Amino acid sequence: MYGRKVKLRFLFIVIVLITLILTIFLILKSLEENVVYFQSPTEIKSLTELKNSKIRVGGMVKKGSIEINSNEVNFVITDYKNEISVSYSGAIPNLFAEDKGVVAEGFLKDKNFFSATKILAKHDENYMPPEVKEALGDK
C-alpha cells in the first residue's frame, strides 16, 4: 500500500517526536528538582502540610529582632501580617538590616521557625552604589 520511502519518513518522524517528548520530559523533571519556591510568612502559616523541601521566605526584617550570637544570627521576617523566626549560621550580607527586605533560603522546621542556609538582602529600586553616587554628585 505505502512505499518504502513513505514508511521510512513516517518512522523518522515518529522517532524525532519520541526523542523530542523525552527530552522535554527530562528537562522539566530536572528543573522540578532545582526549583526553590518563594513564600511569605502568611503563606507559610496557611500551609496545611509541611514539606521537607528547600524554600525561600521573603519579607522585612522586624525592627529590634536581630540577635547576633558568636556563630548564629536569629531574626524575625514579617510581611506585616504574620511573622516567622529565622536562624542562620554564616556570613551576613552588607545590606542586611532591620526594616529592610530579605529573602532567606532554607528549610521549615515548623510554621513558626525557619532554618536558613542562605540569606539574600534586598535593596530598593533606587539603590545606587556609593562610588556612583559620589561620581554623579561631583558633576
Into which percentage range does the β-strand content fall? 25-35%
Q: SSE string, helix = H, strand = E?
A: HEHEEEEEEH
Q: What is the molecular shape?
A: elongated
The helix count comes to 3
Give the termini distance in whole angstroms.
Answer: 82 Å
Structural class: alpha+beta
CATH class descriptor name of the largest domain = Mainly Beta
Task: Enumerate the spans where pLDDT stays under 50 for 5 or more consecutive residues.
Answer: none
| Strand segment tally | 7
Largest sheet: 5 strands, mixed, barrel
Helix proportion: 25-40%
User: Going across the major beta sheet, what is the strand order?
Assistant: 2-4-5-7-6
* Rg for CA atoms: 24 Å
CATH architecture of the largest domain: Beta Barrel
Q: Can you describe what's shown?
A:
With 139 residues, the chain is α+β, with helices and mostly antiparallel strands. It has 2 domains: 1-35; 37-121, Nucleic acid-binding proteins (OB fold (Dihydrolipoamide Acetyltransferase, E2P), Beta Barrel), CATH 2.40.50.140. It is 32% helix and 31% strand. The chain contains 3 helices and 7 strands; from the N terminus they run αβαββββββα. Strands 2-4-5-7-6 form a 5-stranded mixed beta barrel. It starts with a helix and ends with a helix. The relative contact order is 0.14. The model has no long low-confidence stretch (mean pLDDT 84).
